[in-house]
Amino acid sequence: MLELKNIRITFNKGTPDEKLALDNFSLTINEGDFVTVIGGNGAGKSTLMNIICGTRRPEKGAVVLDGENITPLSEHKRAKFLGRVCQDPQMGTAPDMQVIENLALANRRGCRHSFMPGIRRAEKEMLAGKLAELGLGLETRLTTKVGTLSGGQRQAITLVMATLKRPKLLLLDEHTAALDPKTAANVLELTEKVVSDNKLTTLMITHNMKDAIRYGNRLIMLDNGHLVLDICGEEKKKLTVPDLLERFASSSGKELTNDRMILSSK
Q1: Would you say residue 170 has pLDDT above 60?
Q2: Which of 130, 131, 177, 263 has the fewest C-beta atoms under 10 angstroms from its C-beta?
Q3: Is the domain of 9 the same as that of 77?
Q4: What letters, b where the CB count within 10 A reaches 16 and e where it falls short, cover 173-200?
Q5: What is the pTM of this model?
Q6: Over the stretch 176-212, which tens digit does the pLDDT of each residue have?
Q7: Contact partners, residue 253, CB within 8 Å, separation at least 6
Q8: CATH of the domain at 37
Q9: In the predicted model, what is the mean pLDDT of residues 150-161?
Q10: Mean pLDDT score of the chain
Q11: Range of the domain at 239
Q12: Contacts (Cβ under 8 Å, ≥6 apart) of 211
């Protein structure tokens, strides 16, 4: 479904702060894969996501999605077949609009717009049904302004919005990092359900090693712009946090020192 071919990108090129963010980076993700991505600060996780979305263009290499080279496409053109949920719960929704209005906008993405006012009854019922599947009671709050909801509720709505059109690839960019632990756990369970029910190919960045091991069928780990671990299938099911730390040290030649990741593993 996704191929990254020999991607190279450098930040602050030609300055004392020059940093090679991704170095000849290649990765293939198969249709139906749910891949968790982990790595310390500066490992290249967010750069990887931005390259796929089109927020940043690589100096060399290609991004191929479902057989099509999308490297030249702008970010808004890629949005037709990508779904994305960001770390900040406020980024994925329009806070001054109602829940149903936000969902309707997402549902009409990529469609021709007409001058027909309002939201038709059939569309409203379908969207309410999608919310009901979350089990959070949000289907009873369709006229509530999204800005008055909690962070967890907003991320749940953003997740529905990102997956309404069955994207070719769902990108989750540390989408629970800004939530408290209990809410984050709930959103992750909802994520797993939505991904499974819709059979979505998914890439999820997380700083939490336990979550990276628990969710998905494949785990990759980045370090200094390189892919240092790629674990899937039965091997991933048997993986533990100490195993992951040991394998990182063996592959990278150094100990993991990222406080955020280490604390999340306790």
Answers
A1: yes
A2: 263
A3: yes
A4: bbbbbbbeeebbebbbebbbebbeeeeb
A5: 0.85
A6: 888 888 888 888 998 998 899 889 999 999 988 999 9
A7: none
A8: 3.40.50.300
A9: 89
A10: 86
A11: 2-81+169-264
A12: 36, 176, 188, 264
